[in-house]
Every structure is written in C-alpha cells, then in structure tokens.
C-alpha cells in the first residue's frame, strides 16, 4: 500500500465522485495531497479526514486559481509530482443539440472542461520541469473518442482534452513528464444520477455497455492511480478507457 509513498499529488474536482475516490485511493497509497474544488464544504471535510491533505477552493475555469494550486503544492510540500485534472461538468440534463445549444452553455462547458485543463497543465508542467518530471492524468471521457448526439460542448471539450494530453506528452517526454488521459464510461456519480437514476436511462446504459452495469468511481480512481504511478513509466500520450467495453462495440 505504498504505490505513491511521499509523492505530492494535486487533484481537481476532488470533492465528489471520481475525484473524491481518487483522493481516497491516492492517500491509501501514501500520497500527500492538494485537493481542489468549488465545493468548499465537502472538499474541506475530505481533506480533514485524510492523513496528509490540504484543500483549496478553486474554480478551474480561472487560470490564476489553477496556478495558485501548484503554488500551494510547492509551498506546502516543496514540489509537485502528480496531477489529476479531473474537475468537470455535464451540459445539462436535457441535451439541447447543436442548433439549439445556448452560447453561454458552450462557453461554460468549454471553460470548465477544456480551458481548465490547459491552465492546469501549464502551471503543473512548469513546476515539474524544476524537479525533473512528473505524471499528469487528465479526465476525458468516452465522449473524447466518439460523439454523442445533443451534447456538442461536452464532446468538443473532451476531444480537446485528449488533444492537449497528446501535445504535452510529445512536448515534455524528454524532460521526464508523462501525460495521459482516461475515458470513463457511465460511472455512478452525482454527474450521472439523473440519467442512471431514471429507469429508462439505466436500461439504455445496461443495453449499451457490454458489462451490463455502470462503473464505480473507485474503478476509475484505480486507473488514474496506475497511470500516475511509476508502474506506468512507459505509458505516455495514451487515452485509456474504463467503460465496461462500451467503446469496443
Ligand atoms: N460520471 C461519469 O459517468 C463520467 C463519464 C466520463 C467522464 N466523466 C468525467 O469525470 C470527471 C469527474 O466527474 P464525476 O462523474 O466525478 O462528477 P461529480 O459531479 O461527482 O464531480 C465533479 C466535481 O467537479 C467539481 N467542479 C465542477 N465545476 C468545477 C469548477 N469550475 N472548478 C472546480 N471544481 C469544479 C464539482 O464540484 C464536483 O466535486 C469530469 O471531468 C467528468 O466529465 C464522468
């Protein structure tokens, strides 16, 4: 249980779902954590329950707040080894489709799901270059590899996350930085509770996913943990799915 012993890891969207599960798994493996989220109450409570964690309220759509997270890691622990850029939002319970997609929704979804990753990556890579490298994992989605009708903002943002991941992977591999993306399928979290909580949505998911079930946040956290760890030392620029076989169909 010391996969990440003494590593310093930053996690965004840490207050809920996949980010929260990752915080718990990374801590179990000995990491020292900087946790970030807009949900201050849940984030603070989580940090207080872990052996070595600080929480900072952060809106990842603001570049200066993303930089401040890295500064906090350096100030608190002296370095940054791992970053899990995971915060994100869906584009709403009723997908409006491309022609009716509100411009404000487009701006919001792109800012929180894509620009945020760009802002975080820049600050994180700068920090990791000073200490000889690190491992970055970005949360994309199955919607970063294929399209779903009705959610153009989310699909575009997640495809963009995959592109940014590959760019950083090729730019900084020689300096010891690995950058990979994960593609969760249908995972039981707050984000999917409306869809998976409805009988029709759950039946559709069960038919579409070869495993016949939704994933658990911990199953995604374990993939992020492996990619973050030195065991994945030759994995760089990859998009790895944890989707119960959905993309294989
Ligand atoms: N649940 C799924 O089925 C699924 C599938 C594919 C990808 N994802 C991705 O996984 C990531 C985590 O989602 P989740 O399912 O755990 O959902 P979640 O809603 O449980 O967690 C998302 C977290 O991000 C935080 N957040 C939202 N906006 C933020 C902002 N501007 N700044 C900082 N934090 C912010 C929320 O407060 C929340 O704690 C997202 O990027 C999502 O797109 C989820």
Automatic annotation (TrEMBL):
Keywords linked to the UniProt accession: Oxidoreductase
PROSITE patterns, alphabetized: ADH_SHORT
UniProt cross-references to Pfam families, sorted A to Z: adh_short_C2 (PF13561)
Oxidoreductase among keywords: yes
InterPro entries documented for this protein: NAD(P)-bd_dom_sf, Sc_DH/Rdtase_CS, SDR_fam
Molecular function terms from GO: oxidoreductase activity
CDD domains cross-referenced by the UniProt entry: SDR_c (cd05233)
PANTHER family, sorted: 3-OXOACYL-(ACYL-CARRIER-PROTEIN) REDUCTASE (AFU_ORTHOLOGUE AFUA_6G11210), SHORT-CHAIN DEHYDROGENASE_REDUCTASE FAMILY PROTEIN
Family per similarity comment: Belongs to the short-chain dehydrogenases/reductases (SDR) family.
Name under which the protein is recorded: Short-chain dehydrogenase
Organism: Solimonas fluminis
């Amino acid at each position: 249980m010391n996969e990440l012993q003494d590593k310093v890891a930053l996690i965004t969207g840490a207050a809920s779902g996949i980010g929260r599960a990752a915080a718990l798994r990374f801590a179990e493996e000995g990491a020292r954590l900087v946790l970030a989220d807009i949900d201050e109450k849940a984030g603070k409570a989580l940090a207080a329950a872990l052996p070595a964690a600080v929480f900072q309220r952060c809106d990842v759509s603001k570049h200066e707040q993303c930089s401040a997270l890295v500064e906090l890691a350096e100030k608190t622990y002296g370095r940054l080894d791992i970053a899990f850029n995971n915060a994100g939002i869906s584009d709403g319970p009723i997908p409006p489709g491309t022609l009716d997609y509100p411009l404000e929704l487009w701006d919001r979804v792109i800012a929180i799901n894509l620009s945020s990753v760009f802002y975080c990556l820049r600050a994180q890579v700068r920090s990791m270059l000073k200490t000889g490298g690190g491992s970055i994992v970005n949360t994309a989605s199955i919607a970063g590899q294929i399209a779903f009708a009705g959610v153009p903002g989310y699909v575009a943002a997640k495809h963009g996350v995959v592109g940014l991941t590959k760019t950083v992977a090729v730019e900084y591999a020689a300096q010891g930085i690995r950058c990979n993306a994960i593609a969760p399928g249908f995972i039981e979290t707050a984000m999917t509770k409306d869809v998976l909580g409805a009988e029709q949505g759950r039946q559709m998911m069960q038919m579409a996913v070869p495993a016949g079930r939704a994933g658990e946040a911990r199953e995604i956290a374990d993939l992020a943990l492996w990619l973050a760890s030195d065991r994945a030392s030759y994995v760089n620029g990859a998009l790895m799915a944890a989707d119960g076989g959905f993309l294989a169909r």
